[in-house]
Amino acid sequence: MSTTAEMSAADVAVRSIMIMADGERTDFDELIHPEAVNHEGRIEPPASRAPGPAGFYATALWLRTAFAELAYEVHHVVADGNLVAVNSTISGRHVAPFVVYTSEGEVDTVFPPTGKTFASTQSHWFRLQDGKVLEHWANRDDMGQSKQLGWIPPTPAYLFRMARAKSRAKRAAK
Fold it and tell me: Are residues 129 and 82 in contact, defined by beta-carbon separation less than 8 angstroms?
């Protein structure tokens, strides 16, 4: 793999998406600025809200825990200086509880595993500094993903499973 100094801004942005599915911590250290901010971290686990590579790696682990076979397909990339936009599709299979958090870092909602697969579009926006990701924003088709995974409309049985999973997650967080 090339160093970020040898990679274009578009290459850095695309690679930073791909490592969410399969990258090691060292990949995050290479691509993510020490002061990087993920502006989408407000519903993620508290560890994901940390700045820099540690926070981005925690997000990857959060996603990988809930979704097996996690993959990204990049469709379009547009770069203008240190700003990069990436249109992509995320896919995977829901195999473990997906826990969503409040802005205070408390367990908010838990979606128990359905075993179903999904593929949903996402647009990612990056600002780079020193050849590394400094800021990240995303627009996702969460509604489409939720429908594919059977989260909405929820059946009464699934609502019961959600309540039970939330109770377990809250106990585990203590």
Answer: yes
Query: Where does the pLDDT of residue 6 fall: very low under 50, low under 70, confident under 90, or very high at 90 and above?
Result: confident
Of the candidates 75, 98, 71, the residue with the CA atom closest to the CA atom of residue 86: 75
Q: What is the pLDDT of residues 50-64, one digit of tens each?
A: 999 999 999 999 999
pLDDT value at 124 more than 90: yes
Tokens read off for 119: 């593929």
How many folded domains does the chain comprise?
1
On whether the CB atoms of residues 15 and 132 are closer than 8 A, the answer is no
pTM of the model: 0.93
- Tell me which residue range forms the domain holding 21: 4-173
Here the CATH number for the domain that contains residue 95 is 3.10.450.50
